[in-house]
Amino acid sequence: MxxxxxxxxxxxxxxxxxxxxFFLARYFLKKQLQKNPPINEKMIRTMFAQMGRTPSEKQVxxxxxxxxxxx
Length: 71
Prior knowledge:
The protein is mostly helical. 80% of the residues lie in helices and 0% in strands.
């Protein structure tokens, strides 16, 4: 095997690996987001309602700000 063929094979394998890695990462990210959706204001209000409380808009915004800060 000459050097040109070895380099061509290595570059081809690298491109195939990058494409496959991209699609695998995309698949797993979509699966994870379906299983654990990001928290939004509606979810926070629902959690407060389940605890028997009615949150003020200030409390909801504060919790959202704290959640976004933790990321």
